[in-house]
Write a structure and sequence with these properties.
Low-confidence stretches: 1-10, 190-203
Number of helices: 8
Largest sheet: 3 strands, antiparallel
Number of strands: 3
Mean pLDDT: 75
Radius of gyration: 28 Å
Shape: elongated
Order of helices and strands: EHHHHHHHEEH
Helix content: 55-70%
Strand order of the largest sheet: 1-2-3
Oligomer: single chain
Structural class: mainly alpha
Amino acid sequence: MKMVAPWTRFYSNSCCLCCHVRTGTILLGIWYLILNVVVLLILLSALADPDQYHFSSSELGGDFEFMDDANMCIAIAISLLMILICAMATYGAYKQHAAWIIPFFCYQIFDFALNTLVAVTVLVYPSSIQEYIRQLPPDFPYRDDIMSVNSTCLVLIILLFISIILTFKGYLISCVWNCYRYINGRNSSDVLVYVTSNDTTVLLPPYDDATVTGAAKEPPPPYVSA
């Protein structure tokens, strides 16, 4: 007779490199946290010294202001929000608080949806890629080489690249979701399941109910020797 916990029956507890989903979520949260801290430092340095990241209209290929104060403040606010979300996910996975992982999971879904919209846009409007490349600065690396590629091949290459990214992002979403279910199951369920050899399942009652039921029964009669 084998005793199995219910939260291990419907999903996997392992992710890449054969580590636990909880460990994978912690590593993923730390990685996103480092990336957003680096982005925040770059934005703060650009805000402190605007001339360092100033691009003229000729360099950008048109009349466009690369990063004004309003856009800079919005980008800094988004970076701070992302740092908070990643820190919450890391802390929630480490301390086994399932609710702290939900904001990071929602961000993953939103990011996946945006990348899916990009793929759909490329598939429906393939000419938009060529228009976007033409708007790049003349000294942009490999601009002429990309323009010389056949438009159909370019669309297929971009769709293949986006498909790989979406597959990887979907795998990371499943890892975080399994971590959430794992922690939520451990915190909310203490009922064990006994699986017998003929595949029948027996649910054990909670310990308090079992002790009360057992105490309510009348004791057996005393043993009297003959």
